[in-house]
Amino acid sequence: MGIIHQTKQGTGLRAVSLNGRLAKRAVLFAACWVATWPLFGGVVINEIHYHPTSEDVREEFVELHNTGDEAVNLERWSLRRGVRFDFPKAIVPAHGYLVIAADADVFAARHPGVQPVVGGWNGVLSNRGETVRLEDAAGKTIDSVSYADEGEWAIRQQGLPHYKHQGWDWLAEHDGGGKSLELVNPTLSNKHGQNWAASTVGAGTPGAANSVLNADAAPMILEVRHSPIVPRSTSRVQITARLIDEQKAGLTAELFYRPDSAEAFQSAPLLDDGAHGDGLAGDGLFGLSIPAYPDGTVVEFYVRARDEQNNSRSYPAVSVPDDEPRANLLYQVDDSAADDSLPFYRIIMTRAERDYFLNMVRNPTGRFSDVRMNATFVSRMSGRQEIRYLVDIRNRGNGSRWKSPNNYRVDFPSDTPWHGVEKINLNAQYPYIQLLGSALCQQAGLLVSRSRLVRVRLNGVDTAVAGYP
After folding, report:
1. Which Gene3D superfamilies match (predicted)?
2. What gap in Å lies between CA 120 and CA 123, rounded to an integer?
3. How far apart are CA 43 and CA 51, in angstroms?
4. Burial class (CB in 10 A: 0-12, 13-18, 19+), 5
5. 58 and 10, same structural domain?
6. What angle do CA 13, 14, 19 make, to 5 degrees?
7. Fewer CB atoms inside 10 Å of the end CB: C or N, the chain?
8. Residues 174, 94 share a domain
9. How many alpha carbons fall within 13 Å on the CB side of residue 96?
10. What pLDDT sits at residue 106?
């Protein structure tokens, strides 16, 4: 199916509108953070109140926590990236806190008695997520956190009905829900959303220990991947996951997986013994290979980890309201030959969600619904494949919603953008007109979404029909 992919950034030929932020955010300064930690007693970004319920940006604040045994002088230090603030002579007490407020007077009225506080920064914290960076007097990065309101920083919940249909939304109470974003364990890396949670008290706990503080939390489950990205029916599939916990001993991981036609999940242990595609024994990377499946099979999977104290976590996180793993990771077996003549996009859904989605868009009422389904997105461009799990897909358009093939909107989790963008529109109707219009506007120097021609498959199927425009 030839489709126009319109973009607001980049170049090129269904039509895809792209917008969002740069993707390379999460670990840009990890090495510097590790190197400088001992020099400054372990000053970390510990709490972020980025989206007050009131929508008054003057109520925003960032809290620093000194995990060390000596006070740290922050004179001439600064906050950069999300907001800009140059510290006066400010001391973070040993094992204490310092609050940087967007507006010190508004903060004092909202949180009377909290000290020490400095404030008056330039800029506004994004409600979608961005990077907050702490630099010392020499401009070296001491800590950097790239927070988000989706992906690892949120959980999936069943959305409200829209035109009598329901799908998935992201739930993050720290995103305008009256809570702040708090670090769970300051002795572990604060680069990962699984080490953060919404405060259990309204507006957070500035100047005090976090309400979610836990020195013995469940293991973090990171870097979950399957390989190869598009397996063949002759290929076993390797699943890997990295676990991070306060203690390395006693960690266990279990893989749950099922072909889309099965009702029950099978389970098998992921191992860190150096013999299961997991790197070196004891390096924290766990692995297992699972059997090959027939061509076209969609496989659904998730990982559960546990420590010696029986603290457990699942990835993806269980969904609301039933606390069950309902929106999981997916891949599809495909024996067809790769075609690199055009960029190739795969949208992979469970059979149940795909059928629900297709029936919805063919329904006179349902076609107007914007509810979103869970999917995996695989792109192949110039021979290079990339994958994004846990994307949202919905129907889009106005008068063209009832036409086949449908137009789609793909939303990437805000913590894992794709090529620097968080959203793309896949427009299947009259792609040649959209492509030509975009090119002419660009030639005229007008602001316009850039477009590219791509192929799209929904669960391996080209949904185009003969004679489509």
Report:
1. Lamin Tail domain
2. 10
3. 23
4. buried
5. no
6. 75
7. C
8. yes
9. 15
10. 98
Q: Is the pLDDT of residue 2 over 60?
A: no
Q: What total number of domains does the chain contain? A: 3
CA 393/CA 399 separation, integer angstroms: 19
Alpha-carbon distance of 300 to 467, in angstroms, equals 34
Identify the domain boundary among 291, 310, 329.
310
Token code pair at residue 23: 């993707």
| Host domain of residue 157 | 30-198
How large is the greatest C-alpha to C-alpha distance in the chain, in angstroms?
73
Cα-Cα-Cα-Cα torsion 179, 185, 190, 194, nearest 10 degrees, comes to -70
Nearest CA among 384, 231, 375, 256 for reference residue 324? 256
CA separation for the pair 138, 71 (Å, rounded): 19
DSSP annotation of 359: H
CATH number at residue 294: 2.60.40.10
Residue 246 to residue 257: CA distance in whole angstroms: 28
For residue 430, being part of any structural domain is answered with yes
* 48 and 6 share one domain: no
Q: Is the pLDDT of residue 8 over 80?
A: no
**Same domain as 238, residue 173:** no
Which of 36, 139, 8 minimizes the C-alpha distance to 81? 139
**What are the φ/ψ torsions at residue 352 (nearest 5 degrees)?**
-65, -45
Residue (of 391, 432, 386) closest to 408 by Cα position = 391
Last residue of a domain, one of 289, 310, 331: 310
Strands 131-135, 141-146: parallel, antiparallel or unpaired by DSSP?
antiparallel
Q: Do residue 40 and residue 188 come from a single domain?
A: yes
Tell me the CATH number at 63. 2.60.40.1260
Is there a single domain that holds both residue 35 and residue 99? yes
Instruction: For residues 128-137, give the mean pLDDT.
Output: 97
**Alpha-carbon dihedral angle through residues 160, 152, 209, 92, given to the nearest 10 degrees:** -130
Look at residues 378, 294, 364 and name the one whose alpha carbon lies nearest to residue 331.
378
- Confirm if 256 and 303 have CB atoms less than 8 A apart: yes
Q: What is the pLDDT of residues 80-119, one digit of tens each?
A: 998 999 999 899 999 999 999 999 999 999 999 999 999 9
At residue 426, the pLDDT reads: 92
Query: Rounded to an integer, what distance in angstroms lies between the CA atom of residue 18 and that of residue 62?
Result: 30
Is residue 179 located within the same domain as residue 153?
Answer: yes
For tokens 């072909």, name the residue.
Answer: 259
Q: pTM higher than 0.85 for the full model?
A: yes
Q: Report CA torsion sign: 148, 54, 46, 121.
A: positive
What confidence tens digit (pLDDT) does each residue in 265-321 have?
999 999 999 999 999 999 999 999 999 999 999 999 999 999 999 999 999 999 988
Residue 73 and residue 142 in one domain: yes
Q: Is residue 98 part of a domain?
A: yes
Instruction: Indicate the SS3 state at residue 84.
Output: strand
What span, in angstroms and rounded, lies between the C-alpha atoms of 353 and 261? 13
